[in-house]
Amino acid sequence: MKKFELKIDVFWVLITSTRSANKIRYRDFFRALIKLPLLLIKDILKIKAKRTENDIHFKSNYLYVHLESFNNYSATQFLEEEYKVIYTTKGKPSYTRASINLERINYPHPLFDKWRFIVMLFIKRNYSWKYFESVHKYYYSYDSFTRYFEKNKPSAYFFSNDHNPVSRSLLLACRNHNVPTYFIQHGSTSEIFPPLKFSVAFLYGNYDYNTYKLCGYITSTCHLVGMQNQIYTNKKNKEINNIEEIKTIGVAFNTLDTIASLNKLFTTIIEYFDRNIKVIVRPHPRDRVRWQYIMAQFPSLTFSDPLRENPNQFISRCDVIISGVSGILLEAVLQNTHAIQCNLYDSHDEYDYYEYIKNGIVSYCHSPRNIISCLKAINFREDPRYKAKYYDASLGKTDSYSVKETIVNLLNEEYGFERFK
């Protein structure tokens, strides 16, 4: 693979999707013109700085799990119960019991390759330069992983993210050094994702498998097992049919949602229900700023810390979940909790990114101003979970079926993971 094509693979979602190229305004371009020389100066100064080269000594009797977020940890945490696990991550977040700091491992790199690639993004119209800062930051991540593997390499690497640059870099390095890779899905997929190229992939269900086929040729051995980060077996599902009135509303938001839309949503709910209802807000784990503004504007809201409370715990406290475009809607439905996808992204179009609306598993609210009528329209006598069979292969299985046990059994019986215990 040529170097330019390899880097395209690393930054796939950031530079190849039409979504990345949309909404690039003149102010974005002028901001880039100001930012680019500053980054170049910073790189030049770094050349003169002393660098320490830290090695990672992979242990052959451990399996390694790479994390990009708390959600990745939630999806793979069950592996700790069965095997000897070491986590790798670009930082040292509190949710890992063991971590290897990858981001601070620096190597002296020539500037020419990186800056030639960035310039090409601005010149070639079929690529987006919108996320050039991420390209600048992670350009040499693949080279760093390659250096690690040239000295020693792990016996197996697990992923729960397949589209971020660091994960893409690590995956490519594993493939080029014959390190077996295992993908455990942690969220819904879309057509803009890279092709599935892990050794083995554990997917939720048919929707994700069919979506990945649209992304490109699948080289992975795929197992459709269901959503492993759910806390239930089929026997232990939350019963919601006895709800007579809504007492607790959960609102999950992410960086796609605008502050203006969120303000409209909370204002509408609070004005209608007054203090007769509890509203729990949950930001995306990477949204570290905006939730503080929301809580300051609406002090009656209850905060769910995404770094301390996993999605299942948050959903279990709610009678209904409201969100924009987010995989948490599917997680809610799979826990027998009704979900409403609300237009929180200031668009006049119905943005059915994961096809939840098309497949009838969520209600759709086209404006935060209309959220009350959508809440009133919910029929709590219906069981929303079984609308999601297309998304979760575990639905319809026996009461004793466990997604986690199924994954562990497959790892032990088909891939020889008994050696990691």
Task: Please describe what this structure looks like.
The longest helix is centred in the first third of the chain and has 23 residues, at 26-48. The model is unreliable at 231-237 (pLDDT under 50). The protein contains 16 helices and twelve strands. The chain is globular. The chain starts with a helix and ends in a 6-residue tail after the last helix. The chain folds into two domains: 3-224, Rossmann fold, CATH 3.40.50; 234-388, Rossmann fold (3-Layer(aba) Sandwich), CATH 3.40.50. The chain has helices spanning 3-10, 12-16, 18-21, 26-48, 70-76, 111-123, 132-138, 141-151, 165-176, 206-215, 259-273, 290-297, 311-316, 328-334, 371-376, 403-415, and strands spanning 63-67, 85-89, 157-159, 181-184, 200-203, 221-224, 248-253, 278-283, 302-303, 320-323, 338-342, 363-365. Helix 8 runs parallel beside helix 9 (165-176). It is α/β, with parallel strands linked by helices and 421 residues long. 37% of the residues lie in helices and 12% in strands.
